[in-house]
Design a protein that fits this description.
By secondary structure, this protein is of the alpha+beta class. The protein contains six helices and five strands. The chain binds adenosine monophosphate.
C-alpha cells in the first residue's frame, strides 16, 4: 500500500510550529494535543526541522531549565528525513526502524501534505495482517 492511500481522506489537523516559536510554547502544544512531535514549518509549505518529545529530553539534559527560554530553531532536528506519497507504507516503516525515529513528513512538490507516525504505520500493518488472515480463513473454509 502506498503512503498516498494511507493518508487519503485524512482530515486531522497537523499541528506545527515555527523555528522562531519558543520551546515553552512548543512543549505546551505537545502536551495539550497529546502528540509526540511537531514539524517545524519553513513558512513556505516546507519543513525546516522536527521538534519531538525526545528533543525536549535531549536538550533538557544539555541546557537544563534554560531550555524554556530558547527558540524551537535552537533545539530542533534538521535536516529532516521525509517520504513522498508514492512510496510504500512498508518502506516508511523500514526507514523509521532503521533511523530510530517515529515521525515522517510526507512531501509532495516541496510541500508537506501529511505527517505520519510509527503508530499510523503499525495500525495499517495490523489491519493488513488481520484482513489477510480473514481471507485465508474464508478460503480454507470454502475449499
Ligand atoms: P522521535 O522518535 O520521532 O520522537 O524522534 C527521535 C529523534 O529523531 C528526535 O531528535 C527527532 O527530532 C528526530 N526525528 C524524528 N523524526 C525525524 C525525521 N523524519 N527526520 C530527522 N529526524 C527526525
Amino acid at each position: 500500500m502506498t503512503i498516498a492511500r494511507l493518508i487519503a481522506g485524512r482530515s486531522d489537523t497537523v499541528w506545527t510550529v515555527h523555528a522562531d516559536d519558543s520551546v515553552a510554547d512548543a512543549i505546551a502544544l505537545l502536551a495539550e494535543r497529546r502528540i509526540g512531535a511537531l514539524p517545524v514549518t519553513d513558512g513556505d509549505g516546507g519543513v525546516a526541522g522536527i521538534f519531538s518529545e525526545r528533543d525536549v529530553l535531549y536538550s533538557l539534559r544539555r541546557l537544563g531549565a534554560d531550555l524554556l527560554t530558547r527558540k524551537v530553531g535552537d533545539v530542533m532536528t534538521s535536516p529532516v528525513v521525509t517520504v513522498s506519497p508514492d512510496q510504500s507504507a512498508l518502506d516508511a516503516l523500514a526507514l523509521m526502524t532503521k533511523r530510530r525515529f517515529r515521525h515522517l513528513p510526507v512531501m509532495d512538490g516541496g510541500k508537506m501534505v501529511a505527517f505520519i507516525s510509527i503508530g499510523d504505520l503499525v495500525k495499517f500493518r495490523i489491519e493488513r495482517i488481520e484482513a489477510d488472515a480473514e481471507a485465508m480463513r474464508d478460503y480454507i473454509q470454502s475449499a
